[in-house]
Amino acid sequence: MNNEPTVFIVDDDNEVRAAIGLLMDSVGLPNETFDSAWTYLARFDPARPGCLILDVRMRQMSGLELQQRLAEEPIHPPVIIITGHGDVPMAVRAVKNGAVDFIEKPFNDQALLDAVHRAIEIDAEQRGHALEVASVQERMERLTKREREVLDQIVAGKRNKVIAADLGISQSTVEAHRAKVMEKLEVRSLSELMRAMLMLDPRGA
Amino acid sequence: MISSLKFFWLSTRAVEQPDTDLQTRTELSSGTPNDDQGIVNWGASMHGSPPVFLPSTDDVIADARRVSRASRSTDARRGLRRRTPKPSRSMLAALIKLLLTMTLLLSNVGVVPTVGAALQDDDPQQSRAGVQSDPGGADPTLPRHPRPADQVLTALSQAPSDHDALFTLGDALERYWIGVMVGSGVLLALLALTSRVLHLNKRLSRANTRLERRQQLILDSVAEGIYGVDLEGRATFVNKAMERMTGWRAEELIGNDQHEIIHHTRADGEPHPREECPVLATFRDNVPRFVDEDLFWRRNASSFPVEYSATPIRDEIGETIGSVVVFRDITERRRAAERISQHEAEQTHFSRLSTIGEMASGIAHELNQPLTAITTNARACVRLIDSNRADMTICANVMTKIAEQAERAGEVIRHIRRFVRKEQPEISPVAVADMFDTVLVLLRQDARRANVLLHQQIGAGADRVMAQRTQIEQVLLNLARNAVEAMSDQPRERRVLLVARRYHDAVEIRVVDTGPGLGELSPEHLFEAFVTTKAQGLGVGLSISTGIVEAHGGRLRVDSTAGIGATFYFSLPCAGAGLDSEPALASLEPTAGVLSKRETTHE
Lengths: 205, 603
What we know:
The complex is a heterodimer of chains A (205) and B (603). Chain A has helices at 14-26, 37-42, 63-71, 88-96, 109-140, 145-155, 160-167, 171-184, 190-200; strands at residues 6-10, 31-34, 50-55, 79-83, 101-104. Chain A is of the alpha/beta class. Chain A has 2 domains: 6-135, Response regulator (Rossmann fold); 142-200, Orthogonal Bundle (Arc Repressor Mutant, subunit A), CATH 1.10.10.10. A 5-stranded parallel β-sheet of chain A has the order 2-1-3-4-5, sandwiched between helices. In chain A, helix 5 (109-140) crosses helix 9. The radius of gyration of chain A is 23 Å and the shape is elongated. With 603 residues, chain B is α+β, with helices and mostly antiparallel strands. Chain B contains 22 helices and 13 strands. Chain B has helices at residues 2-16, 22-30, 37-47, 57-72, 74-83, 91-107, 112-120, 124-133, 149-157, 169-221, 240-246, 250-253, 258-262, 278-285, 331-358, 360-386, 392-420, 432-449, 469-486, 523-526, 541-551, 582-587; strands spanning 225-230, 235-238, 289-297, 303-314, 320-329, 428-431, 453-458, 464-467, 495-503, 506-513, 557-561, 565-573, 598-602. A 6-stranded mixed β-sheet of chain B has the order 11-12-10-9-7-13. In chain B, strands 2-1-5-4-3 form a 5-stranded antiparallel β-sheet. Chain A binds chain B through residues 12-13, 15-16, 18-20, 22-23, 25-28, 57-60, 62, 84-87, 105-109, 112, and chain B through 360-361, 364-365, 368-377, 379-381, 383-384, 387, 389, 398, 401, 404-405, 408, 445, 448-449, 451, 453, 603.
């Protein structure tokens, strides 16, 4: 599987699409072009890193619609919106929907490339974060039911004595469970444990 | 009456013979005035009875006098002489005779005998001959009663009427009073009649003059110019308005060829041939004409536009004798019409500008696409060169693409510029595809945004029309934009199809959509100005479109089916098929169908 970030270009204007592709080529960025939102969706692979350059005005499915569809996916490349003249309201909507940037046509090549690089970084971050979450979740699977209960009490900030009283077990048993949880989740300190837990639930416990 | 005339004749004869001898006198007096035989006897004694008497010197003298008198009054006698030998039985003839006699009497009272003598002498020649041959064998040179020569001379020297004052006017009146009365009566009657006729004549001519003056007054008070021409085309009358309008005076026009004076040249400067003059044609074929646009020339060689009617003039028996022309200067009207059409042109121009304004965003996008491609390609190419990865083939390809995109942008700008141009070209042959292109180019981005597919289909033989290009493009763009907007909310397939199809000598242009139809909007109101269903629209689009189509001689119609779509269509005159070979080729492919020859889809 190709893990090199790829620039995906979706524009229904053949010439513009090809020109953007050429620009990516000129800076050595791997790229793929799609003539409509549908063709992109048909070949969408969430695992592939990179970014998406999306023309906002397209027949059948507009850039905004495609963006909304992608938002339903757990992970997708960051979106750079290309707008025509006077499409500012659309661009605003796109940014609210999570687009990392919007660029007005005809654009400065450097501006687009900067946006592309930034988007790729964001994608990498997003993908790294997503990997961590996935591994924490994987480790969480190892915990027993009792260990999960003890973990919840720890995250809630309760001390061992209180946990023992609450669960009706001895304080030494709580300590044993706690050590097991730390071991299974591969965290060395309470603070590390807390960070891993926050990753799973950003709203915080 | 005749006998009385003879009596008169006899008595004059008697009076005239004062110097004849006694025998003659006796013989005369022995005849009763009423006895016709008296004349005969006397005549016989004159011409054929030598034994009775030989002419005396006196006779000779009297005869000579008679001769001279007779020759003097030949004219006076002639009429009578004609009648005397065979007196007419008609009363009228007698009356005239009497009247003439009386006239002579009255005018020549003192010489009544002369008349008598004249009357007696039927033929002066004959009487002279009688005188000369009278003696009947005896020597005429020897008088029977010789008289001294001085007596003869004395007698000759005497005036012929010395002894004639015997029959006076009183006598005449006394004797012929009936005749005089009757004659006077007739004369008076004639006189009265004559004066009556004269009076009537005068009234008639006054009435005529009045009538003519009134006619002229009517003619002159009319605002239209009026003139008549005879069969040679010469003006027979003109009115004041014509003098005023043309600057020619009536006397300069009347009798002269009107065509050469006021109608000689056409508006384009070409001479106007006589054979084509409607005024002259009117009396040739006897058909009245109305000409709504022509040119008349003024005296100062300027011209003015006119409309006129020419009607043949017939005389009492229905024979055409010329024609009458009533004309009106239409300068003002034409100026008003020009103003109106100018306003209309401004309105359509304004409408085009506002259309372009409303479409500005889409059109800018349409320009941005090639510009984006150009700049991006150029930058990429520079980057490739900078990084030494540039390949000449790649660069050449990119440069070609750049050029093509620049041309594409230029094409868009050309379409816009032509569309917003104010001055309009004339109606001329236009390729339908060119007009469809303008619509597709200008509308592409809006259609893209509204997710509408634009198609065009041009049937065989429908590729060229006679049209004012920009205006028809305006109509098509109006209709296509309406269609795009009408479909913007519908979930169904969204398509707008521009179709051109040949029907006989016309090309029918259709704008078909798959929208919801017209709904409650009735087709009658649809084409009126300021009727609109759009939030921001003046509602003038369709009314302007209607005007444009009508100016091309067509009519904008609509078919609509709810839930299926609407079709707006109109016809344009076909511009000479066969300008290029394409239609001919298409017609060779019957299975290809009328519509499949040229079909493109713009996505």
